[in-house]
């Protein structure tokens, strides 16, 4: 669990809350979703992307979810998509077919993209900014030994994202400064973000 400045809740609690609010947002428009003979599926999908997805993804750039939490987010998103297009038991549809039909992709892709966009924004900040100072301090100060299961922190998740696509992770201040140089070129950073987010590919228009 991680805590954000000015907040008393951690990532797990924040993600749970986002799911609850997204569910409430979805149910508020359920009378529209169920009128499938009057409302085209494409329009329902666009409305879902406009009114439900932003609720679910709010503040997602600061999340450091575990692999299990990411899988749970993707599963939650697929349940909403299946409901949106009227797929209920005993009807079934594969995950790949569901994403293709809804022109969607795993929600973890959007979380990862938001995380890297925010990271790039912080890396481009001037040296005196508190956020930059906090990042540098993180790698300069030796962390206290943590008993029990290793914690999942935002730097660890960002490094894991890079390793997932065959790139070198970053664990030292030198690695962080190298990424900071890359972030100064917006085009190069955009390419890096796209590369990282392709690691869990799907279909989206």
- State the share of residues found in helices, binned by percent: 55-70%
Question: First CA to last CA: what distance?
Answer: 34 Å
Question: Sheet bearing the most strands, described?
Answer: none
Number-wise, the strands total 0
The count of helical stretches stands at 11
Taking all residues together, what is the mean pLDDT?
85
Shape: elongated
Structural class: mainly alpha
Q: Give the helices and strands as they follow along the chain.
A: HHHHHHHHHHH
What is the domain total for the residues? 2
Characterize the structure shown:
The chain has helices at residues 11-28, 30-33, 41-51, 53-57, 67-84, 95-102, 107-123, 130-140, 154-164, 173-183, 186-197. With 205 residues, it is mainly alpha-helical. It folds into two domains: 11-105, no CATH class; 112-199, no CATH class. It is elongated, with a radius of gyration of 19 Å. 19% of the residues are buried.
Record keyword descriptors for this entry.
single chain, about 200 residues, mainly alpha, 2 domains, 11 helices, about 0% strand, elongated
SSE blueprint:
Elements: H1 11-28, H2 30-33, H3 41-51, H4 53-57, H5 67-84, H6 95-102, H7 107-123, H8 130-140, H9 154-164, H10 173-183, H11 186-197
Quick structural summary:
This protein is mostly helical and 205 residues long. It folds into 2 domains: 11-105, no CATH class; 112-199, no CATH class. The chain has helices at 11-28, 30-33, 41-51, 53-57, 67-84, 95-102, 107-123, 130-140, 154-164, 173-183, 186-197.
